[in-house]
Amino acid sequence: MFLTIAAVLCGATGWKAINIFGEAQLDWLRQYRSFNNGIPTRHSIGRIIRGVKAESLMSCFINFSNALREKNNKEHISFDGKVVCGSKHGDDIDALQLMTAMVVDNGLIIYQKETSTKTNEIPVMQSMLQNINIENAVITADAMHCQKETTALIRKGKGDYVLQVKKNQGKLLAEIEAYFNKCYRDTPELLKQNHFMELDGEHGRINERHYRLLPITNWFDETAKFTDSHAIVEVTRLREIKEKISKETSYYITSLTSNVENVARYIRKHWAIENSQHWVLDVTFKEDDCKIYADDGAKNLATIRRKILNLVKSHSSKDSVAGKMQRACWDMNFRAEILFGE
Predict the structure, then answer these.
(1) CA angle, 73 as apex, 70 and 79 as ends, to 5°?
(2) Which of 12, 95, 208, 324 could make an SS bond with 88 (beta carbons 3.0 to 4.6 A apart)?
């Protein structure tokens, strides 16, 4: 396990690469483990890692991740699914699909669980919510997870939620749209009081986002089904590229009693899981290129990658994940700092 973790930190993506790393770094490895019989063959490495029960390894990972959590103010936990494309094998074995919970502000992955199909993400997320500490946290997820049962579990765990509303909750969506239209017509001053705008852009692209928050009143019927729902949010996104302007409007429901600017921050940062985790795993760790699929091999390597991602991000060095991994490959002392602490 130590050999595999160290090798993946240094860019290994398969059993052969782990074996090559071990042969080249045997003297360094022996500073921390005996390796009395040398480095196992690539086939033995594969058998060992595949043979570890995925649930057992995940349990260790969760304990490790929670030990790293530093809870300051409201922790923002984002839930999102990811497909490990390379783990698909012919028509018999589907690609591994994982639901991940990530602390957005520091990129720490605190839980991961397999999902069998896209629609199965709903009960998987609900199961995860019951197994992690979400007290005083703000939970965000995509519109699929705007479910009455999910909001009830979040509030039971003493957390808050900001969830997008789409057509899977058709009645709620229609009610929210109608109420905003009513306010635009009858009480526009209320919308002005609860408005926040963001403006950014680069390379000829301008992004403009308008957030408008309205407290839930007795006018609503559907919102009462979502535990402790307090406000609804309309987000209008305008994007200008080469003088062409596109517009998109989306809606959210939240239990937060915060001001609109604070709620806007959670909505915007939810998508950080795509950039901070998924992109790094695919580009830096080359997760989608990994062809390992048998037994629990794909699940265990996915867990190991996320453990390493947590370790790398926890190191105080001011560099990208890719930069730190490259340095770990070349600098044995830095590699030890990543794996064992500074």
Answers:
(1) 70
(2) 95
Residue 112: phi and psi, rounded to 5, are -145, 135
**pLDDT-above-90 percentage for the chain:** 53
* The model scores a pTM over 0.70: yes
3-class DSSP state for residue 226? coil
- Taking only the tens place, the pLDDT of each residue in 301-311 is 878 887 888 78
Distance between CA atoms of 142 and 130, rounded to whole angstroms?
A: 19
Instruction: Tell which residue, 284, 273, 275, has the closest CA to residue 322.
Output: 284
Stated as kind and residue range, the H or E segment containing 327 is helix 321-330
Dist CA 149 CA 323 (whole Å): 42
Using the 8-state DSSP alphabet, how is residue 37 labeled?
T
Pair 183, 195: CB distance under 8 Å = no
The candidate with the shortest Cα–Cα distance to 99, out of 86, 117, 87, 85, is 117
Cα→Cα distances 171→121, 165, 203, 225, 338, Å: 22, 10, 40, 11, 50
Instruction: Please give the C-alpha separations between residue 43 and each of 19, 47, 51, 72, 156, in angstroms, as whole numbers.
Output: 9, 6, 12, 45, 47
Query: Which residue in 154, 157, 158, 176 sits closest to 167, CA to CA?
Result: 176
CA distances from 151 to 92, 129, 139, 190, 233 (A): 36, 10, 9, 27, 16
Please tell me the distance from the alpha carbon of residue 132 to that of residue 304, in angstroms, as a whole number: 19
Q: Which of 89-103, 169-183, 203-217, 255-269 has the lowest mean pLDDT?
A: 89-103
Name which of 93-102, 137-146, 193-202, 228-237 the model is least confident about.
Answer: 93-102
Closest CA relative to residue 287, chosen from 3, 1, 78, 11: 11
CA 82 from centre of chain: 9
Kind of pairing, strands 108-115 and 137-141?
unpaired
CA distance 131 to 125: 10
Three-state secondary structure call for residue 61: helix
